[in-house]
Every structure is written in structure tokens, then in C-alpha cells.
Design goal:
The protein has helices at about 5-20, 65-75, 100-105, and strands spanning about 35-40, 45-50, 80-85. The protein is built from 3 helices and 3 strands, in the order H-E-E-H-E-H. InterPro entries: Fe-S_Maturation_MIP18, FSCA_dom_sf, MIP18-like, SUF_FeS_clus_asmbl-assoc.
Amino acid sequence: MSETIDTAELGEKIVNVLKTIYDPEIPVDIYELGLIYDVFVNEDNDVKILMTLTTPNCPVAETLPLEVEEKVKSLDAVKDAEVEITFDPPWTQELMSEEAKLELGML
């Protein structure tokens, strides 16, 4: 009998992976920064991540989405992963978690 993993559990594992990815200019992970808008997991364990960047001209605009995709795909339970970048709504500091604000001395 093969091990099954529900989508909620897989979602948590994906979030844990996202918390290992950092914006190179800010010492906070992309999840706590509020760059991840949504994570979708379907019954086939295909993953779609809707994310943004701090600015449209972000120096890591080419590499960061690829890093997110690769790290999420590295999870055994994930069949495929796709990252979609959006700037609607645009990222603001209000999207940051309390933890991120504290880390950056904003609280």
C-alpha cells in the first residue's frame, strides 16, 4: 500500500520549503515577506504558486521564481510545480508577517 498524503499536509510541506528561500536583499524568507499570495495543490499533487516580487524591477525576477519552482518540485509528493508571478495587488510592507517586521526592526 503506497503512502498517501492529503493536499493540506502537502500544502504545509510546501510552505516549509518556501520558508527556506530568501530574498537576497532582505534577510527574511519570501513567505514571511508576503511574496507568496497563494499555493494551490490539486488531487494529482500538481502545485501552482501565485507570488509577487517586491518590485517589478527586482534583481532576482528571473531567478527567484525558478528557485521556488525547483525547491517545491524537489518534494517527493509533488508531481509538478508552476510559479505564476503577479503584481496585482502590488507588494507592500503591510503584506509582511509580524515576524518579518520584527526581524527588520519595523516593530
